[in-house]
Prior knowledge:
This protein has 13 helices and 20 strands. With about 425 residues, the chain is an alpha/beta fold. The chain folds into 3 domains: about 5-100 and about 200-265, Adenylosuccinate Synthetase, Chain A, domain 1 (3-Layer(aba) Sandwich), CATH 3.40.440; about 105-195, Adenylosuccinate Synthetase, subunit A, domain 2 (Orthogonal Bundle), CATH 1.10.300.10; about 265-425, Adenylosuccinate Synthetase, subunit A, domain 3 (Adenylosuccinate Synthetase, Chain A, domain 3). The chain has a 10-stranded mixed sheet with strand order 9-7-5-2-10-1-11-15-19-20, with helices on both faces.
Amino acid sequence: MKKNLAIVGLQYGDEGKGKIVDILSERYDVVARYQGGHNAGHTVIIGGKRHVLHLVPSGIFHPNTKCVIGSGVVLDPLALIEETQAIEKTGSHVKDRLFVSNRCHIILPYHRVQEAAIELQLGERRIGTTSRGIGPAYEDKMGRRGLRMCDLMDASTLREKIRQRVEEKNRLLAALKYPQTIDPEPICDAYSAYADQIRGFVIDTSHYLNQQIRAGKSILFEGAQATLLDIDHGSYPFVTSSSAAAGGAATGLGIGPKHIHQVLGITKAYLTRVGSGPCPTEALDARGDELRNRGVEFGSTTGRPRRCGWFDGPAAKYAASINSVDSIVVTKLDVLDTFKEIPFCVDYKYKGSLLNEFPADAEILAKVEPAYKQIRGWNTSIAATREWSKLPQAAQDYLKFLSDYLETPIAMVSTGSDRDETIHM
Ligand code: GDP
Ligand code: IMO
Ligand code: MG
């Protein structure tokens, strides 16, 4: 039996999960997204053509792979409609291949308004969210006042439920002194129409996945965001609102944890972060700009410049342990081609002492001093290298150091954005 595999980000997102899920999904029967929403931006490049997926699993470009959006995802119906239409235009098909959970919570327009109001109120302390309504949708889920896909599918009660929720939100906006009220009627009309457009995708995905498991089919669990943005284990409060770490796959899909057989952690050879929050290894000098320019580090969802810096060892070690990763994929090694020396953070110091644990308090994380080991660069292009033996010795040494540091074997190295620009170990 083939083992089910969870793929998770070990940093602050954008590690290149989309590329790796796309490559590996050919070998799996089903690819399932378990959390997040259209805050994710997963880039898949096939034959030079760029596709950015936000909601649909990155397995959609393999015709024999089924794709599932599980109940742990918060779903904006319009985003799903637009994305499925864009996929159809590429010649890939979604009909009878994409399944959406009837328990998914729905993002409504008032979630985005609520998010804008809260971010405005936070001022300097704002999270720097993707403005997709993700946080407020999860708040409503946990507050037990959310609307789910099964509500969207029930035309007889949908209007009444939306009107009731909008009334509550208008009271909240008034309390926040936010100069906007929401009219429920256009939302009712739009969401009734969306319901008809997506009805064909909606099923009990937990039932479906468990059936697939019983039939001996293999499943790839696709994480969005990443461990350091996980609601429980990330750099709280500068996190997203879902369980991005591997454990989230069980709750977010309604399968037992024993069906997650292996965990693959994805990390860049350096580090990026979008939005606010501590980032100890951020390079605020010209080398940070060099990383951004070489790595084209601009958000796939919002287009914001990503903050760039060096590989953060303590953070990656912590993330590897949270997920119990079996092996890792190191991406974007080619971006480091031009550096004579590459700083690699091996320890955090706080108030003069070494920290033994990844700090829970974001204020401490913001103040730690990274201790760097300088690793010799290779100063030659490794772009598109497909074999380990063709990598320069210094590049092999960098990867060996990283792997030894994390005490985890490397399964793949990515040397470019295309499917083929990959070393399989
Ligand atoms: P995800 O959110 O983890 O799926 O990652 P994103 O797609 O948001 O960001 C990763 C970016 O890096 C995308 O633009 C990819 O096309 C690109 N990328 C992935 N792997 C490599 C690589 O090895 N080298 C280079 N230069 N770019 C890569
Ligand atoms: P992928 O799946 C990078 C960040 C936002 C913000 C914080 C909270 O492409 O790796 P949210 O809108 O989720 O409430 O924002 O999380 N963020 C991401 N950063 N990659 C992502 O997804 C992200 N999704 C959210 O920038 O700091
Ligand atoms: Mg991304």
